[in-house]
Amino acid sequence: MAGSLVKLGAWGGDHGGKEYDVTVAPQRLEGFWLRYGKVIDCISFSYLDKDKTLHTVGPWGGQGGLSEETITFEPSEYVKEVHGSVGPIGDYTHVVTSLKLVTNQRTIGPFGNGAGTPFAVPVLNNGSVVGFFARAGPYLESIGIYIHPF
Predict the structure, then answer these.
(1) Cα–Cα distances in Å, from 72 out to 18, 39, 135?
(2) Taking 60 as the threshold, does the pLDDT of residue 4 lie above it?
(3) Domain spans of the chain?
(4) Per DSSP, what are the bridge partners of residue 103?
(5) 62 contacts: CB under 8 Å, gap ≥ 6
(6) What is the pLDDT of residues 96-108, one digit of tens each?
(7) What is the distance, to the nearest Å, from the Cα of residue 89 to the centroid of all Cα atoms in its chain?
(8) Keywords in UniProt for this one (predicted)?
(9) What one-character-per-residue DSSP string does 21-62 give?
(10) d(CA 148, CA 28)
(11) Per-residue pLDDT tens for 75-89?
């Protein structure tokens, strides 16, 4: 990816799922969607690139999960922290078991049961989370983030 975009992570495991990533560098996160139950089953998100073109990626993951959530970010809102946890389900030893997003205006989540080892990624110096990359099969196996500094 170009310029000052920073790629961090991923948190989770590798159980042979497919790797997913953006193809155009993100500039601003516009929305986030997830399906979840005991673990995070699937994610999707939309973002703007440097030319203000909207891109929607996903869904990345499986068809399971009893609940889903759609999040739309306000024009002045940005994600400044991502929290989650990684743990087992069935034969999978390391999948994303919870996610929580913290913006400059609110806390969204947590979603999932939160079993396992927690992780937290605060973005420093007024940067923001602008996108994600992942590995997924029937569940979200791992997740990483793109940060755009201000």
Answers:
(1) 26, 22, 23
(2) yes
(3) 6-148
(4) 79
(5) 41, 42, 136, 137, 138, 139
(6) 999 999 999 999 9
(7) 19
(8) Lectin
(9) --SS--SEEEEEEEEESSSEEEEEEEEE-TT--EEEEEEEE-
(10) 8
(11) 999 999 999 999 999
